[in-house]
Amino acid sequence: MGLLDRLDNPYDVGPGILLGTVEDLLNWGRAKSDWYMSFGLACCAIEFMAVNAAHFDFMRFGTIPRPSPRQSDFMIISGTVTLKMAERIKRLYEQMPDPKYVISMGSCSNSGGPYWQNGYHVLKGVDRIIPVDVYVPGCPPRPEAFLEGMVKLQSKISHQAMFRKRQDMSQEDLDAIHNRQVEIERQFQEFQKVQQELKH
């Protein structure tokens, strides 16, 4: 019973002993071995190439690029998201298996960038069509900023509750999930309406 009381501080048990839960172990593995699908759309994609080069060595985080959304744990949106590309991004996101994550890299994918006011063809943030987990600011962001975003994503994954069932969630959490889904659907319908108007 004394060991169970120490689960809150798993490192202070004794030499060579480390306590934790199965969920902690699974989250540690998920956070340190993520496969990603890169969706490079503009100049931020060039900075992402620098992140993958030897100097910054993105693979030291345990990440591996995958060509298919069905094999990817998270998606990196880097660059200007036009209205034509938005529908494809949403389709690829829906093909990814759960749990799935999104990193939005650069001002254009975060909020429309320099095109936010007069760019009729540019989506004013990729979070209008898919949920975003980490925003990396900059125009374009430096590789160090992207690496910090990756650290934040890994932290989010390692603290995620995997075995928490919906019936155990509070009503407030359930309402927040429902409201987010409704808002994403509403924004996507607005986007489709704008796209139809531009076609005519």
Molecular structure report:
This protein is an alpha/beta fold and 200 residues long. The chain has helices at 22-31, 44-52, 83-95, 107-111, 143-158, 171-199; strands spanning 35-40, 64-65, 74-78, 101-105, 134-136. The chain has a five-stranded parallel sheet with strand order 2-1-3-4-5. The radius of gyration is 19 Å and the shape is globular.
The radius of gyration over CA amounts to: 19 Å
Side by side, the strands of the main sheet go 2-1-3-4-5
Low-confidence stretches: none
Q: Kindly, what is the distance between the CA atoms of the first and last residues, rounded to a whole number of angstroms?
A: 71 Å
Reported for the largest beta sheet, the result is: 5 strands, parallel
Strand content: 5-15%
Integer average pLDDT: 78
Q: What's the β-strand tally?
A: 5
Helical segment count? 6
**Secondary-structure element string:** HEHEEHEHEHH
What gross morphology would you assign?
A: globular
Protein topology:
Blueprint: H1 22-31, E1 35-40, H2 44-52, E2 64-65, E3 74-78, H3 83-95, E4 101-105, H4 107-111, E5 134-136, H5 143-158, H6 171-199
Parallel strand pairs: 1-2, 1-3, 3-4, 4-5
Helix pairs in contact: 1-5, 2-5
